[in-house]
């Protein structure tokens, strides 16, 4: 009985999974199950099956994924497509076969068409071409959504899918080659400030617009939806406002205290011109984000400084 009440967080060492774990530890009385990559390889179907049969979790949060910024997505299409498909197929099918009561699958705002009408409503899915730089990742995430919806329709499973906007926060990846824009800019601007360099170079034109949500707000929304949302229809999670990459850089320069020039390397891709989510579905349930972008960047910069000292930031 006790095992049936437990909640399994897949991917608890990543930025999203670790934020969900912190939130669960604070709010939930249910036993929490986690496994590191060394203990359980989610790409290995047999291992995943044995784990689910032995532990029989009652609820599952599927936060394990291969993720990365625009360049990593472009350079590693095979890994982004195959590893995500493998992990999510293994976890979602094992959840069904072992009678998991509820599963929450994390998708991404990049599943929507490149030129989707803004703000992007959930109904836009599969209505147009995807952004080529992250098409393999988006296809994998769309397959995950469709698998959850298929289990819901065919086998009446309560498997829900949430679509977060661009995320940032503690435990983000600050590697300049593979990271998303926000941690990359924190690191680049900090390095330029520390070395007294007169300018910092960012990718693309600086004109694309992105919406950023702090991962602690995302974790709060996921637990809220786990309790309050039982539909197979996908649901967006976002902040509700966006900024240009140039404006983001200006906020980060202010937080770091850097006064040099910002240059843009036009040989690097811009990606989707704009990605602002329509949050009507989520907001109608009563959830709201709490962490402003400037506040979130300040605390993430502090995290970067502290963890950099101890060598946790790659
Ligand atoms: O966050 P990001 O890598 O990915 O880039 P996407 C966002 C924008 O920031 C692009 C620009 O226009 C980049 O050209 N940018 C400027 C930079 N300087 C930098 C830099 O130093 N590093 C990075 N990384 N970008 C991702 C998808 O798209 O969004 C993923 O590739 C995922 O699959 C994620 O969906 C949420 O926002 O364009």
Report what the structure shows:
This protein is α/β, with parallel strands linked by helices and 314 residues long. The chain is built from 10 helices and 13 strands. It has a single domain (7-309), classed as 3-Layer(aba) Sandwich (Rossmann fold), CATH 3.40.50.720. It has a 6-stranded parallel sheet with strand order 2-1-3-4-5-10, sandwiched between helices. The chain has a 3-stranded mixed sheet with strand order 11-8-13. Strands 6-9 form a two-stranded parallel ribbon. Helix 5 (135-155) links the parallel strand 4 and strand 5 (158-164). Helix 2 (45-55) packs parallel to helix 4 (77-97) and helix 8 (245-256) crosses helix 10 (293-309). Guanosine-5'-diphosphate-beta-L-fucopyranose binds next to helix 3, helix 6 and strand 7.
The CATH topology is given as: Rossmann fold
Order of secondary-structure elements: EHEHEHHEHEEHEEEHEEHEEHH
Classify the secondary structure makeup into a structural class: alpha/beta
**Architecture per CATH nomenclature, i.e. the level-2 architecture:** 3-Layer(aba) Sandwich
CATH superfamily: NAD(P)-binding Rossmann-like Domain
What amount of the residues lies in strands?
5-15%
How confident is the prediction overall: mean pLDDT? 97
Number of domains: 1
* DSSP strand count: 13
Poorly predicted runs of 5 or more residues: none
Question: What's the overall geometry?
Answer: globular
> What does the main sheet amount to?
6 strands, parallel
CATH class categorisation: Alpha Beta
Distance between the termini: 42 Å
Q: What are the distinct ligands in this entry?
A: guanosine-5'-diphosphate-beta-L-fucopyranose
The number of helices is 10
Strands of the biggest beta sheet: in what spatial order? 2-1-3-4-5-10
Rg, rounded, reads 19 Å
Helical proportion, percent range: 40-55%
């Amino acid at each position: 009985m006790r095992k049936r009440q437990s909640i399994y967080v897949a991917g608890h060492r990543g930025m999203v999974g670790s934020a969900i774990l912190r939130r669960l530890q604070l709010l939930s009385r249910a036993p929490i199950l986690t496994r590191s990559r060394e203990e359980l390889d989610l790409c290995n179907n047999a291992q995943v099956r044995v784990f689910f049969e032995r532990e029989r979790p009652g609820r599952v949060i599927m936060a394990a994924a291969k993720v990365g910024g625009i360049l990593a997505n472009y350079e590693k299409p095979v890994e982004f497509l195959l590893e995500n498909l493998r992990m999510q197929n293994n976890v979602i099918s094992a959840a069904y076969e072992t009678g998991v009561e509820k599963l929450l699958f994390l998708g991404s705002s990049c599943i929507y068409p490149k030129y989707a009408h803004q703000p992007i409503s959930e109904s836009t899915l599969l209505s147009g071409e995807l952004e080529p730089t992250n098409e393999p990742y988006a296809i994998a995430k769309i397959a995950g959504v469709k698998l959850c919806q298929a289990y819901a329709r065919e086998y009446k499973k309560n498997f829900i899918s949430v679509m977060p906007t661009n995320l940032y926060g503690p435990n983000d990846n600050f590697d300049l080659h593979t990271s998303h824009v926000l941690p990359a800019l924190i690191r680049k601007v900090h390095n330029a400030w520390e070395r007294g360099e007169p300018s910092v170079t960012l990718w693309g034109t600086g004109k694309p617009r992105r919406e950023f949500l702090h991962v602690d707000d995302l974790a709060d929304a996921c637990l809220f939806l786990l309790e309050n949302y039982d539909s197979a229809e996908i649901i967006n999670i976002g902040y509700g406002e966006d900024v240009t990459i140039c404006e983001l850089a200006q906020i980060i320069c202010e937080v770091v205290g850097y006064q040099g020039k910002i240059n843009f390397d036009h040989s690097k891709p811009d990606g989707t011109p704009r990605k602002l989510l329509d949050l009507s579905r989520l907001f109608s349930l009563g959830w709201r984000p709490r962490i402003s972008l400037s506040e979130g960047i300040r605390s993430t910069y502090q995290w970067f400084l502290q963890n950099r000292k101890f060598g946790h930031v790659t």
